[in-house]
Amino acid sequence: MDRRSPIALFMALCASQLGVLAAGHSKVNPRIITAPQGAKEYVFPRSEKYPVFYHKENSSAIYIGGEGKLYYYDFATYENYTEDFPVKNEGQCMTSGSLEDNKNYLTLVEKYGDGMLVCGTGACAPTCWNLTQRKESTSWDGRGIAPFTPDSNTLVVVDGHDIYSTIKKSQQNGKIPRFRRVRGGGELYTSDTVMQNPQFVKATTLRHEEPHQDKIYYFFREDNPDKSPEAPRNISRVAQLCKEDKGGTSSLSASKWTTFLKASLICVDPVTKGNFNWLQDVFFVPASDWRRSKVYGLFTNTWGSSAVCVYSFGDIDNVFRTSKLKGYNGPNPEIKPGQCVSSGQHTPSETFKIADSHPEVEDRVEPLSPTKSPLFHNKHRYQKIGVHEVSVGDGRRYNVLYLATDKGSVHKIVELLDGVQNIMELQVFPKKDPIQSMILDHKRAMLYVGSTNKVVEIPMDMCGVYRNNCHSCLLARDPYCGWFNGTCQSVYLNREVRQNLNLDPWRGTCQKGDIKEDDYQNITVVPFSRYYLNCPIESHYATYNWYHNNSLIKTCNTTHPQQDCFHFIQNVSHVHYGHYVCISEEDGFKQALVKERLVNQLRFMSQKGQATMTFGSWLQLLLMVLLVELFH
Ligand SMILES: *[C@@H]1O[C@H](CO)[C@@H](O)[C@H](O)[C@H]1NC(C)=O
Ligand SMILES: *[C@@H]1O[C@H](CO)[C@@H](O)[C@H](O)[C@H]1NC(C)=O
Ligand SMILES: *[C@@H]1O[C@H](CO)[C@@H](O)[C@H](O)[C@H]1NC(C)=O
Ligand SMILES: *[C@@H]1O[C@H](CO)[C@@H](O)[C@H](O)[C@H]1NC(C)=O
Ligand SMILES: *[C@@H]1O[C@H](CO)[C@@H](O)[C@H](O)[C@H]1NC(C)=O
Ligand SMILES: *[C@@H]1O[C@H](CO)[C@@H](O)[C@H](O)[C@H]1NC(C)=O
Ligand SMILES: *[C@@H]1O[C@H](CO)[C@@H](O)[C@H](O)[C@H]1NC(C)=O
Ligand SMILES: *[C@@H]1O[C@H](CO)[C@@H](O)[C@H](O)[C@H]1NC(C)=O
Ligand SMILES: *[C@@H]1O[C@H](CO)[C@@H](O)[C@H](O)[C@H]1NC(C)=O
């Protein structure tokens, strides 16, 4: 419904009849992007049920491991090839049955030494190949590095020549999952009593000042030992191990890690006391000082909401170093449980015995100070997290979070000084195909998102979505984009761009010359008339503001949801002309909904001069004079 004053409405109608009002409201909604500009895709030669992905930082290529095949594709040169990795000697699946398993599913594609490591199930006979310059080595026994059949509860960490994994080495035995060292040093595994039904999430190694202090951290969920009805069934954990662990001194402990400790990860909203206990994914953000390296943990809860909690490795290390062991009240031995010993030495058996029977520390790992609360939480059920740091023109650095939803889309969320802001939803797979993998290239600022049949390469700096509209460009608060010389540009192309990422009032940023007159709907309003500016309320969670010539003139809180956000001008005078913008804000996401430019048609016309007067404008002038006479 149009709530403009009758005279203005009539004028607008007349004007549009005469072709004066050409464009309607040009609504720019950069929030949901379905066909990302600059995105490229690679469709696999055939669909793959269990694809694995590998991308080397600062390259433009991707490797995809499929069933018996390795696909290579370079997004820059379109170079592509497929390598075959067939099953050798019919495999060994005879006893276990399923025809489905009787294939070589590639499960690992990684950089290894100077070349690549490719491993697969080998039809129940795990097998690996070294790959150098497209040349495969002879195959070697991959037990412990690749599973016997596709399995989701596996982690493999390749760190130089060392390989750690959670994969069992024998098909029949080993029902209890273990974390193993399978290459580099002697083989080691975790005691079967230290984890209860673990579901592994991710692992990393971390260099400390001294090589013998280097650690491995892995993140997992396990059954909560607290079985009371109000306790959550699963609990999220971080475990630590020393990289140079040499195992125990007795024959029973010789192949066991002696430096294992685990701690709970806490992610609780302090306001609602809502507990996000289900660790879904983590992303590691390294820093030059390992203590400041961070872990971004993505958690979900029973109701399908998600939260992101951020931890520092300094805090994690502190918990393992200083906390009491749960249930242990005896004296601490000289070498404390979890402590790394000097190179070449074994953990004393006394220390190992205490740690092995009390593997959990009492203190819990809390999110970063000072708030110790989630970075944010919302109602989406996110599956994966990635974090990219972007440094902008003013030298500040901002973290941008990429969160894969369960609907084939990715949310781009920025950590700003005044909180996080969801700036964009990228619908990567329009048919909502599940996102199998999301890889970030930090150097090239590219995102690689994979499904079971393709990979899409998306530039992180998609400034084109703001359509060279100053308000859209600046209001979005996208750290990759800014305003310069009449266009919305990437900070990677131009460091001088104007941005509005801080708490500056927005009016300081889009200046007169930046605003394209084409964006505005011209409304002719005669002096002394009444006029309504009407902004449609689309969401009851949003705030709506009307600005006139860049000054705030009206704020609407949606306490009366059935009403739109009006600004009423009782008696139009010369001060009321000019540019009006209605901006909505929801979850920190701002957008310009209505842009109107009120013009005094009489003056407008007379300024144009006689020579340009057409028949239409004469008719209009006639009408106008008539109307002014009628209503005045
Ligand atoms: C990334 O690769 C380009 C060439 O492709 C090279 O010039 C540049 O130095 C590399 N950057 C880093 C940080 O390695
Ligand atoms: C793969 O490379 C060939 C040339 O070797 C090219 O014709 C083809 O278009 C490429 N495939 C894709 C999907 O780009
Ligand atoms: C594979 O590469 C690793 C590391 O470079 C090496 O130790 C191993 O001998 C290689 N295996 C084969 C079969 O070439
Ligand atoms: C969560 O807890 C239930 C009950 O203890 C268990 O069956 C399930 O496997 C656990 N899931 C994970 C992912 O740890
Ligand atoms: C601004 O853009 C115009 C074209 O739109 C171009 O001619 C001019 O060189 C640009 N100025 C600068 C400083 O980049
Ligand atoms: C509104 O009028 C201005 C000034 O005459 C013009 O530049 C602009 O294109 C007009 N806007 C529309 C949407 O027609
Ligand atoms: C509207 O809401 C904002 C924040 O929610 C508040 O600061 C402001 O006072 C409210 N205004 C009115 C008119 O209720
Ligand atoms: C509108 O303002 C003008 C001048 O300020 C005044 O003469 C006129 O009476 C006002 N009209 C109404 C309807 O208030
Ligand atoms: C707003 O701008 C218009 C034209 O640019 C001018 O006529 C009007 O007086 C201005 N009003 C205010 C309140 O600044």
From TrEMBL:
Regions crossing the membrane: none
Annotated SUPFAM superfamilies: Immunoglobulin (SSF48726), Plexin repeat (SSF103575), Sema domain (SSF101912)
Location within or outside the cell: Membrane
Keyword Signal: yes
Example GO molecular function: integrin binding
Compositional bias per record (Polar residues), positions renumbered to this chain: 340-350
One of the GO BP terms on file: semaphorin-plexin signaling pathway
Range of residues in the leader sequence: 1-22
GO-annotated cellular components: external side of plasma membrane
Residues covered by the Sema domain: 20-460
Residue ranges, annotated region (Disordered): 331-351
Family: Belongs to the semaphorin family.
Record keyword Disulfide bond present: yes
Name of the featured protein: Semaphorin 7A (JohnMiltonHagen blood group)
Annotated InterPro entries: Ig-like_dom_sf (IPR036179), Ig-like_fold (IPR013783), Plexin_repeat (IPR002165), PSI (IPR016201), Sema7A_sema (IPR042824), Semap_dom (IPR001627), Semap_dom_sf (IPR036352), Semaphorin (IPR027231)
Record keywords, A-Z: Disulfide bond, Glycoprotein, Membrane, Signal
